[in-house]
Design brief:
This protein is of the alpha+beta class. It contains 6 helices and 10 strands. Helix 3 (61-82) crosses helix 4 (94-107).
Length: 222
């Protein structure tokens, strides 16, 4: 069964021109960039929570595998949709269809897409990674992140999401000169809740820099 795509998304891509090679060092995910080898954004902004999640994965291996697979497939569906491709549901579990349908009204607020899964890095920050999407969301150029969650999120639980979006905004500006002054975290929860968290990257720059400094102290120089 396929989904009839009603919206046609406009794409105005910015060519970053360089792909990033992922490398591993001492168990850390790093990227080889034209300016050096940098840790991933997600590694740095989430390192304070890594111990908790590592222990959770050990206690819940099957659920961990399910959640990881859910995230990968969920992003795949969204990417097909915003690329104006036909979505084939044949191999997609019904719960994943529900999550996608739940988030679709927010996806339809996206347009004038500049980047999807685009490699970014910053010599200034010493970070690298791939951003989900950079586009207009509800008319505002935004860093857009797509999340699937088992349950509703509290804002206090996801400060690392805001730091991550801020890093991508700064990296995109460094690479292109284009200022992105909004982010939108779009979350579909398995309990039927749809959440949208918006903010301005400029308000989280200090928090991001604090996380980078804490990561440096714990892991040595980036």
């Amino acid at each position: 069964m396929s989904l009839n795509v009603n919206k046609i998304f406009v794409h105005t891509p910015v060519d970053i021109q360089v792909d990033l090679k992922e490398v591993s060092q001492d168990g850390k995910r790093l990227y080889q960039t034209p300016d050096g080898i940098f840790p991933s954004v997600t590694t740095v902004v989430g390192f304070k929570k890594q111990k908790f999640f590592a222990e959770w994965r050990q206690r819940n291996p099957e659920e961990s595998k399910r959640v990881t697979s859910r995230g990968t497939k969920f992003h795949g569906l969204i990417e097909q949709y915003i690329k104006n491709e036909e979505i084939n549901y044949d191999d997609t579990h019904s719960s994943l269809k529900g999550l996608f349908s739940l988030l679709r009204p927010e996806l339809d607020k996206i347009d004038n897409i500049k980047a999807i899964e685009t490699p970014l890095w910053s010599k200034t920050l010493g970070l690298a990674g791939r951003t989900d999407c950079i586009a207009e969301y509800d008319g505002k150029l935004s860093i857009i992140d797509f999340k699937a969650s088992t349950k509703e999120k509290r804002e206090s639980d996801i400060d690392n999401y805001f730091a991550q979006a801020t890093a991508y905004a700064l990296m995109f500006q460094e690479r292109t000169g284009i200022i992105v002054d909004n982010f939108a975290i779009l979350i579909a929860c398995e309990d039927g809740i749809r959440q949208v968290f918006q903010g301005k990257p400029i308000n989280y720059v200090r928090h991001l820099k604090t996380l980078i400094e804490e990561y440096k102290r714990d892991h040595g120089n980036l």
